[in-house]
Fold these 2 entries.
Entry 1:
Amino acid sequence: MSDPDQRRRQFESIALPLMQALYNTSLRLTADGDEAADIVQETFLRAYRTFDNFRPGTNAKAWLFTILYSVFANRYHEAKRRPRMEAVEELEAPAGPESDIALVAAWGSRWNPEVERALRRLPEDFRTPLLLIDVEGLSYEEAAAVLGCAVGTVGSRLFRGRKLLYAMLQEYAHQAGYGKHSAPDP
Amino acid sequence: MTDNASHLGATLQDLLDERLDAARQTEVLTHLAGCPQCRSELEALRWVREVALKHLPVEDVPPALAARVVAALDVTDKQTVRRGWRRRTMAAAVLAAAAVVLLLLVSPSSNGDTLPNAVARDFVAYRDGTLPLTLHTSDVAAVERFFVAGGAPFAMRVFDLGMMQYQLVGGRLHRLRGRPSALFVYSGPGDRNLVCQMYEGQLADLPRSDDVREHNGITFWVYRAGTVTLVFWQEGPVVCVLASDAEAEAVIQLAYAKAVKV
């Protein structure tokens, strides 16, 4: 990739088609459109600067999500602005009358309030594996690489995340026609 | 849902995500056949994965973000070029490179790489998937905002070709033989692609065309490169070009329909 134009073209071919997935995940991590955009821009910059280390044929999506999560984690953890953590027990209770103004503004008319609100309430440790594996389709191994943890850890967090999400959405699921006769109690 | 030593717990997720070997899968399925609680837990996990999270809305990338990303990459490219230049210490090499650049600038067609060739090459690159768009949207205004946010150095407009059954796909801030260009793409009948570019320049910069037409007082220069038809025209300081592998006269008619005399 010595020719700068060729390098730029190759990078754009690989990375730009993933901008929407990166932006959507960033939006769900931050619940803030401006913050999400900043993180995506920083992700592309870092990726471009280190593009020579990317091996063609490997999973570009996992590579870019690794950078995205690193940018996100640095911003929130170093600045101590990490999204509010709630006690796990509290999460299984129905959502209170919290303000959804920021979320609605970020997602517009396509916002799915029940699921998005429940996702937002999940602790980041449980939410991120859900976003990477269930929403973006990464494998356990790719998600583990993104998050910098063991595959088993990803599996256990995913399991907890799915259970918590279901507990929060059980009423919604029933209203939508799911499990009226067979769903378990939380 | 409960975790219980007599129930399967996280193993249900391994079954759902197909992470069990055949022997263990058989054991789990046998347990499920006689355990309503585990069946319910499995279905709840499945609902979360396949219903709740599979139907989340997908938000379009804001045009301003797409433009910001491109601008940031441009800045990085310029910084890289500047660092590269600083490393060059041999004055003769610098002079030689400058001479080559100057030669290319004053003799645009001396190496056969004409603007029509470059436009045709961009069309093929887009069609083959090697020229990505920065912004994907069918919203004409959003693409125009994207170009403005990206600092397009000239007034431009994105066509609405819906009446001609061409749907806008998106756009990118591009460079056409070194010139900034606004590139936007449509998808038409029969999955034909239509790539439009606008850049500051003059029709006189183009090589002579054998097919020059007039319509409503506007001059159109038509070129063909293989199956690709290219139609150039002038709007003030901006040159517009349509490139498509659709039938040639159809491409020309699209240009006729959208060209504005300035």
Entry 2:
Amino acid sequence: MALDPARRAELRTLLDDWVATRSPKAKERLVEGHLPLARHLARRFADRGQPMDDLVQVASIALLKAIDRYDDERGVEFSTYAAHTILGELKRHFRDTGWAVRAPRRLQELYLELTTLTAEVGHRLGRSPTIAELASAADVTEEQVLEALEAGQAYRFTSIDAPAPGTEGATISSTLGENDPGMEMARQRAELEELLDILPDRERRIVILRFWQDKTQSEIADELGISQMHVSRLLARSLAQLRDASS
Amino acid sequence: MVGEPWGTLGDEVRLVVPADPGMLRLTRLTASSMVGRLGYSYDEVEDVRLAVDELCWAITGIGAEGSSLALVCTVLDGAVQFEGHLISGAGSAGEAITLSSMTSRILERLVDSFEILAPNGTNGPGFRMVKRRA
């Protein structure tokens, strides 16, 4: 990813500012300046069956790590160091959360096709489609649909090294329901809030929408503007993380 | 299949696998196949898959080496019942399944009913859950 000299100098200034001040504002500007690099590297892995959203998220978090860990006195260009860190995290992401049970290519392809079909058929019918309807739309058997859906869930053996959540948005307490005077409820709520805090913002929101606001996966998909299968996969992954954390 | 799903399957499907988390894929696939063939919506199939995963995982968590997990899926009137048990496994049969408040909350939203079962005879600790079709 070649940069023109002016852009390179601009990024150098951002880095110098960060090294000198360590201020949140400088960090934010440095992140923004290098997000194109993160996206560029994430795209290298775009044909491996994982949504770009996820890959960009992994790459962006790796960029944050690179910024935090970078030591200017070592004489390594930051972009080189960041690229190395981001690629390492992307590879680790695939190793840890990729197709844990290696799915045949045809199932991976069918899974990706179903990602689109689920939304299309669902919108056409005005309800969540049945497996038979999905099979008919994809011109495959119901067994193949189920196998593909299961193959898509093979991401679930995730690392507990979840990205740190941001601090924006509503508090968990405000979304868990009405106030309850009972101490037991209060204790449970505190426990739940602590547990949910391990999830990244988006996954936490999905869990709350599904289990505290009783939205279906398809409703959540519509609300967030992502596919239902993506919601499904994020939910499964989140539950596995919550389980690991609580056990 | 969608038009008249009930009665087109046998009343019961049984699956016995090693009580190992690596085997949960088979339990999820069995359960989702069952309800998928009965005309449940994709949303409902996903609910079953997640719920079976949670409960079977709880069983594998208390299973000693060499123990098995039995999952019985039974077609009821307009619903499917899933019953899972730990089988054998010296030293583990008496241990109860415990669910966190988080897991209980999640299961309440995923299925119509669920309960944790105490060891009974040859059956070790287990669970029973029912998912109705909308």
